[in-house]
Every structure is written in C-alpha cells, then in structure tokens.
From TrEMBL:
Residues 93-269 form the DUF5753 domain. InterPro entries: DUF5753 (IPR043917). This is Transcriptional regulator. It comes from Kitasatospora indigofera.
Length: 275
C-alpha cells in the first residue's frame, strides 16, 4: 500500500495555512520527515506535530519559535501563529460557533455532557482532557480559554433566549470526580438568568430519536431555522427544510417529556447531595 499524506487545505483557515507551511518547509529541507523534525525540535512529539500540521491542533508560541529557528524563517511561523490563535475552533465546528454567536434563540439537548455554554472551568478542563488525551497542557489551556469565551454570549446584550434539555445521564456521570461534579450541579441550579431555561429529561422518559448525541437548533434573525447534530467526534449542520423540521419535532417532543424547570432544579439538588 502506498502511503498518502493527509491532504492539507491552506486557504481554508489560518490554522490550515500554518500546517501547510510547516509541511512545505519540511519538504524544502531535504524532504524531512516528522520523525526527523521531532529530533530537531525539543519537547514536541511526532503525534503532536502531525496534529498541528493537519490543523487538528492549535500551534503554540514555543513551537512557532522552534520552527522559525529550525528552518531559518525569520519569524514566519510566529506571525502565522498570531493569525491562527484568533481562530479558536477547528474548521468543522467553526460554522456552528458562528451560528451560536449570532442566534437570538438557542435550543439544545445533550445526552452525554453538560452543554459547553454552561460548563464550569473544572468540568470543561476535565472534559477536554478526556476528549483530547494526547493534547499538551498548552493545547488544553487554549481549548479551555475558547470554551469559556463562548459563555460570554449568555451575558451579551442582547442575550439569546436559551433552552437547555439535559439527559439524566449527564447529571449522574461524575466527570472529574465528586467535587468537580458537585460544583457543576451547583452552578446549574444557581443560574438565575431569566433568559436561560433548564430542563432534565429523566430516564423514565424512555427511548427517543436523539439518544446518544446532541441536538441544537439555532434561530438567527432573517434566516431559516438551522439544526446542528453532534456526536462524540463529529458534527453536521442541517439546513434542508425536511431535515430541520424533523429535528424541530424531535426537540419539541423532548421538551414535552422533560421535567418542568422547577422539578428539574429539585432533581439536580438531590443529586448534589449524593455527590
């Protein structure tokens, strides 16, 4: 089998351009492999360099300085890093984050974890570490900063009307341990923002169409309703009217089956005592 390197897309984003330049300079340096580049640089693994090159991970300042020194590029990678770090999310999630930033109404159901817009720093960090087990501390810090920055949307003016439905499994799984989970549950019940409504979908509701994933509906002024369906490692934007209508129906059924906001708060308080 002939090895085919991962295709790069330098015009897609600054992060992609950084990776493309990284590969281009390797090729110019005698077709240097990632293994050889690892030996030249200090403290960067082959897997980490590969993720940066294919734009799956954010580069950092130290790597940029090391690449400029290794290739004699007089600050090229430092400048690319300054551009890339402004793009906080990978390309496959960037459209969803743009919709989140412009939506007047956000309706979200999650089956596995607390929505990013509601996560405490402790739970967010642990979730990111679990989802990216090979990421460096710097990469985790960068992703955490981006996730917490998203939460400013809930206190913006005007703030979006938000409706969150959390599967009971989300509340019972002790992500990060008891102390982290107790703080997260406390943050959920202490949220007094009038534009944020929280409901719990209990196990007793039984099976439903969105089991195992998450569903978000974005109402953006002047645009048709858009759905975002996400799994553990992928997500897709749905815009065709039939597909969006089906997700609208799914969400409305989940809302009808969920506990009332008051009963949901009572359940969360009970679970806090069990942590």
């Amino acid at each position: 089998m002939v090895f085919r390197p991962h295709e790069l897309h330098p015009t897609r984003s600054n992060r992609d351009l950084y990776g493309w330049e990284m590969r281009a300079h390797r090729k110019r340096a005698g077709d240097m492999s990632l293994d050889q580049l690892t030996n030249v640089l200090d403290g960067f693994s082959k897997s980490h360099l590969a993720r940066v090159e294919r734009a799956a991970s954010m580069p950092c300042a130290r790597l940029s300085q090391a690449l400029d020194a290794a290739f004699g590029t007089d600050g090229t990678f430092g400048r690319l890093y300054e551009l890339a770090k402004k793009e906080k999310f990978p390309g496959k999630y960037r459209r969803a984050m743009d919709l989140e930033g412009r939506a007047s109404i956000i309706e979200e159901y999650t089956s596995a974890t607390v929505p990013g817009l509601l996560q405490t720093p402790g739970l967010a960090r642990r979730s990111l570490q679990t989802g990216h087990p090979h990421a460096s501390a710097q990469e985790i810090d960068s992703m955490l900063s981006a996730r917490l920055d998203r939460q400013k949307r809930l206190s913006s003016t005007p703030a979006p009307r938000c409706w969150f439905i959390l599967d009971e499994a989300v509340l019972r799984r002790p992500v990060g341990g008891s102390a982290v989970m107790r703080a997260q549950l406390a943050a959920l019940v202490d949220d007094r923002r009038s534009h944020v409504t929280l409901q719990v979908l209990p196990f007793g509701a039984g099976e439903h169409a969105e089991m195992g994933g998450s569903l978000t509906l974005y109402t953006v002024p002047g645009n048709p309703l858009i759905a975002w369906v996400e799994g553990s490692h992928s997500g897709v934007i749905i815009e065709d009217p039939e597909g969006v209508a089906a997700r609208r129906e799914s969400y409305d059924l989940l809302r009808a089956q969920a506990l009332s906001p008051r009963d949901s708060s009572a359940m969360i308080r009970t679970l806090m005592e069990e942590c």
